[in-house]
Amino acid sequence: MSKLAPFSKRTMKVYIQDIETGRYFKNPFVWVDDKSAAYNFVTSLEAFDFCLQMNHGRGARILLSFDDPRHDVCLFAFEPAPGKAVEAAAPATPQAAVAGRERECELAVA
Questions:
Q1: Which of 62, 77, 96, 107 is the right S-S partner for 91, CB 3.0 to 4.6 Å?
Q2: Hey, where are the domains in the chain?
């Protein structure tokens, strides 16, 4: 007999967030401050495709949002566009780049 708790259904919502403003996509003409008012993409792939189609990939990140915000995940489809760096300076190592992006995600989710 397993000591693991029974599986409970968890919900995940998928949002697109503008890197510069921190606002969330609602529709092609509206970006909102509150992610609960934003458009919830069915999958992260759908959100990536939308970013590509709208040519917004370099200025956006995809937020996978769960019931418990400690489990939220930010995905970066592309490097920031030239002149629109998210970090203050280029990271010295790949590990520093990952750490910087994790911090950006924490700030975005907070």
A1: 96
A2: 12-109
| Paired strand residues for 75 | 62
Nearest to residue 106, comparing CAs of 30, 10, 17? Answer: 17
Per-residue pLDDT of the chain (110 residues; tens, 9 = 90+): 455 555 556 689 999 999 889 999 999 899 999 999 999 999 999 999 988 888 766 788 999 999 888 889 998 877 655 555 444 334 444 454 455 555 556 555 55
Query: Which DSSP string corresponds to the chain?
Result: ---SPPP----EEEEEEETTT--EEEETTEEES-GGGS--BSSHHHHHHHHHHTT-GGGEEEEEEESSGGG-EEE--SPPPTT--SSSS--SSHHHHHHHHHHHHHHHH-
The reply to whether the predicted model has a pTM over 0.90 is no
CA–CA separation, 74 and 5 (whole Å): 27
